[in-house]
Amino acid sequence: MRKNVGSHSGRMFSDRKWIIPFFASLLVSVSLVLTAILGEFSSYGGGEESPFDIVSFNGSEDYNGDFVESDLERSINASVVVKMEAPKFAYLISGTKGDSHRMMRTLEAVYHPRNQYILHLDLEAPPRERLELANAVKADPVYREVENVRVMSQSNLVTYKGPTMIACTLQAIAILLKESSEWDWFINLSASDYPLVTQDDMLHVFSNLSRDLNFIEHTRISGWKLNQRARPIIIDPALYLTKKSDLALTTQRRTLPTSFKLFTGSAWVVLTRSFVEYCIWGWDNFPRTMLMYYTNFVSSPEGYFHTVICNTQKFRHTAISHDLHYIAWDTPPKQHPISLTMKDFDKMAQSKAPFARKFAKDDAVLDKIDKELLSRTHRFSPGAWCIGTSENGADPCSSRGNDTVFRPGPGAEKLRKLLQVLLSEEFLSKQCL
Predict the structure, then answer these.
(1) Rounded Cα distance, 204 and 206, in Å
(2) Which domains does the chain show, CATH number per domain?
(3) What global pTM score does this model have?
(4) Rounded CA gap, 173 and 274, in Å?
(5) Any idea of the CA torsion for 183, 185, 189, 193, to the nearest 10 degrees?
(6) Which one of 8, 57, 220, 328 is separated from 181 by 20 to 30 angstroms, measured CA to CA?
(7) Strand positions, DSSP E, 2-123
(8) How far apart are alpha carbons 31 and 25 in whole angstroms?
């Protein structure tokens, strides 16, 4: 018996064909184990970060990359990488009763096939006016072909100084994010705004900018604004009524927050896609907290985005304190913009700003802007995408060419000089202070 066993064992060990595969598999297994171990240490041990590494917005060390928030943040981090292709803008143009024609004029002045546009006519406008606006967009052959202009089907009652304006803006942003994944900056305009440069000027200049710059005028709230805006508690009747009325003030007064700093500034902004995505998704809950805080805040549209961006480490250094508007204020106390007229044209043209506000309906200065600043003789401000003929009064923009080619004019050089100042070290040193 022992002899047979020994003989069998000898034949087994004498057959060495298994040795090479055995050691090869052993080497692979050891390599995989070492790779896993070293990978664990490298993920905690620092080292240089890849540009695509996921970084927590709140700096927390217990951030779990398995949650859906990590995927959302990864997409945002990827979107702030400087892109080589030409940028795209997403516009919200808003108005109220009697503003539909002014909104269409502003739309045509800032139109470009690369961009996205959404129009909101608030609930104070009669249903017939909203229907006419929607039909005008639907019937237009250019808008129908490009499919980049939308009219919000849900009309909201909006109080300028109340949170309903923020709610409407966030709703428009959410629609724009859902409908298109390729725009870079969000711009909000009202029916009383008007451009001072063409979209070819804008797109040409912004092609050379980093896609993570937010243009939002801001300053720390202080002085009389602390008592008149930060401490009072208001109720916006537009939240529960169907007729617009003034804000209601309560007798209670609130204390100033200690966990975040309050900022204020212009309600007109040019915000990056990555930042507005953060405001919509709000995975660290801060944007939602601020939304609830500003629900009862006087002039909340002039503080919500400003406070969010300046209290968020990832975005505070991207805030450029300028709203890219030319605005003439009343004196004193510089709280209400005056309506711009012919006497303001030279100052507007020299301001280098791409937009101005506010304008009265069909004021003569708008025709002067069309003629001398936009070279607008037909419906749209001209651009390289307009390849049709202008013979016999025809609209050259009725034929559409390559929308990645731009023909910048004098407005582009003015805007470039303005941005040169805004991006100087002296100006950037004042971010969120």
Answers:
(1) 6
(2) 89-428 (3.90.550)
(3) 0.80
(4) 12
(5) -110
(6) 57
(7) 89-95, 116-121
(8) 10
